[in-house]
Amino acid sequence: MCGQIPGRTAGYEGGDRILTDDHAPVELLGMRPIDQIIEQELAWYKDIYHEQGLQGLLDNVL
Asked: Nearest-CA neighbor of 45 among 35, 36, 53?
């Protein structure tokens, strides 16, 4: 059921600042291990592609 909830909500107008946690330490610390995992996983696919070409990659994946 869609509708308004009278008396329980307030309007909001944004200001000049945008707050984000894109550069939070926990984000930056977690990016390197994730990038390494992705790089390791992609190495298998890259090797097949370089050795067998696109068809070899498709044959191994599908």
From this structure: 53
Global pTM reads 0.47
Local confidence pLDDT in tens for the 62 residues of the chain: 556 666 777 777 778 887 777 777 777 788 888 999 999 999 999 999 999 999 999 999 88
Cα–Cα distance for residue pair 39/47, rounded to 1 Å = 12
Assigned token pair, 62: 């599908």
> Can you spell out the DSSP letters for 9-55?
-------S-----TT-HHHHHHHHHHHHHHHHHHHHHHHHHHHHHHH
